[in-house]
Specification:
Low-confidence stretches: 121-129
Radius of gyration: 16 Å
Oligomer: single chain
Order of helices and strands: HEHHHHHEE
Structural class: mainly alpha
Number of strands: 3
Distance between the termini: 58 Å
Helix content: 55-70%
Length: about 130
């Protein structure tokens, strides 16, 4: 097994780069609120781009971004083992399934009084009147 970084792991390289850039952009420009899922934003304002954008950054702290990208970096071993095509399908289907499971959760949280899901999965409450 080669330890030459991202050699033979192009999808892992792309995912690490996209997540690192999105995290850096979210933290540096203080736009973390744009990377959250909110019932109002999705179902009332039809901002469907948030369904994809919420999956990209580690937007809470720079430390979260460093650890998250570091963990994604180690998934290159899995990509080498199963192949790029199978790994990319696995990763994209996992993100899609995660998003689909978050939508009913948004509805349930809305009825419980919370309106927002943060990108890292933590709950943010908001008061609605």
């Amino acid at each position: 097994m080669s330890l030459a970084g991202f050699q033979n792991a192009p999808f892992s390289k792309a995912v690490c780069a996209v997540c690192a850039c999105a995290s850096l952009l979210a933290v540096s420009s203080r736009t973390q609120h744009l990377y959250t899922l909110s019932y109002e934003a999705i179902f009332e304002r039809y901002q469907f781009w948030r369904l994809v954008a919420c999956q990209l950054p580690f937007s809470r702290t720079p430390g979260e971004a460093i650890v998250g990208v570091y963990l994604l970096y180690f998934f290159r071993v899995f990509e080498r083992h199963v192949g790029t095509s199978k790994y990319s399908v696995f990763a994209l289907l996992s993100m899609a399934l995660s998003t689909l499971l978050q939508l009913p959760l948004l509805y349930l949280m809305r009825s419980a009084g919370a309106d927002t899901l943060a990108s890292s999965g933590s709950r943010s409450s908001s008061s609605s009147t």
